[in-house]
Amino acid sequence: MRLDAEFLCSALTMAECPRWGRVEIALAGRSNVGKSSLLNALVGRKNLARISKTPGRTRCLNFFTLGDRIGLVDLPGYGYAKVAHLEAAKIALLLEQYLRQRHELKALVLLVDARRGPQKEEFALAQFLHDPSARMEDSPRLIVVATKCDKLKRADRGPALRRFAAIATTPLICSCLTGEGIDRLRHQILSVAHRADAPMRED
Ligand code: GDP
């Protein structure tokens, strides 16, 4: 199954987000977690996600179409060592506004390095999504992805994944190198979009 994906626009403020009536699935994760690689693997395009890394776009919400009915939103990576304090605060505010206010948002794909496990930012994000008072709309579903699992030995998987217990009962184990888990993630995204009652074409 393949869905065509295209870059649409970047937004630095909520007012700049597109009015497009698509079900949105957002991807979040600290910088270097493998978000671009995963986005490319998901849509079968080599360089699509590079757009989000071009100058001026790294602190934006970057919107991509996926098929006819879904929007993928690449959220700014957090945890950059080099980002100045004020810049980091602006990014955090935009992220919070998006998660709080965007009614199109139906699922957040939270990427966590399989070897590192969730840290305070990921715990905070998961808690925020589960807090019913955080949003006017229904809470988006949380899909936790353990990235770069090819770097874990089989025997180390169990202990590594147990560190995810506080944010996900079963994180999706993925590797862009081997392709493990990519189809399952694609299916989860499509099923969230279906449940949000957005008829779409799948080929
Ligand atoms: P981003 O900053 O979150 O967008 O991360 P990138 O997708 O740019 O990846 C950061 C680094 O991790 C790059 O050197 C990638 O080649 C590497 N990487 C990404 N995904 C995987 C993976 O599944 N396995 C391995 N071994 N390396 C990966």
Notes on the protein architecture:
The chain has 203 residues and is of the alpha/beta class. The chain has a single domain (5-195), classed as Rossmann fold (3-Layer(aba) Sandwich). Helices cover 30% and strands 21% of the residues. The protein contains 5 helices and 7 strands. The chain has a 7-stranded mixed β-sheet, sandwiched between helices. A hairpin with a 3-residue loop joins β3 (61-66) and β4. The mean pLDDT is 90. Bound molecules: guanosine-5'-diphosphate. Residues 29, 31-37, 77, 147-148, 150-151, 175-177 line the site of guanosine-5'-diphosphate (GDP).
Brief write-up:
The chain has 203 residues and is of the alpha/beta class. 30% of the residues lie in helices and 21% in strands.
Residue fraction in strands: 15-25%
Q: Please estimate the helix content.
A: 25-40%
Biggest sheet record: 7 strands, mixed
The rounded distance between the terminal residues' Cα atoms is 5 Å
Please report the first level of CATH classification, the CATH class. Alpha Beta
Ligands and ions found: guanosine-5'-diphosphate
Determine the mean pLDDT: 90
Strand order of the largest sheet: 1-3-4-2-5-6-7
Number of strands: 7
- CATH homologous superfamily placement: P-loop containing nucleotide triphosphate hydrolases
Reported by name, the CATH topology is Rossmann fold
Low-confidence stretches: none
CATH structural architecture: 3-Layer(aba) Sandwich
- Please tally the helical runs, counting DSSP H or I stretches of 4 or more residues: 5
Radius of gyration: 16 Å
Q: What gross morphology would you assign?
A: globular
The secondary-structure class comes to alpha/beta
